[in-house]
Amino acid sequence: MLTVRLDAEMENFLNTLAEQTQRPKSFFVKNALENYKEDMQDWLEAQTRSNSQDRNLISIEELEKALGH
């Protein structure tokens, strides 16, 4: 179980969204956290790869050439 304090603007938004969609507020909070989790996993993977000693980077010019642009 987790308790989160929201500012008034976010609380009002969440209340309105829940009322208009007939879904519980927790539905939207869980959905938002799942999306954030996926984004953060992607970001962390990109950071790990960019800091790797064996990374294989190419310039934008090399990429465009390889794609025929």
From TrEMBL:
One of its GO terms (biological process) is regulation of DNA-templated transcription. It comes from the Bacteria. InterPro entries: Ribbon_hlx_hlx. This is CopG family transcripitonal regulator.
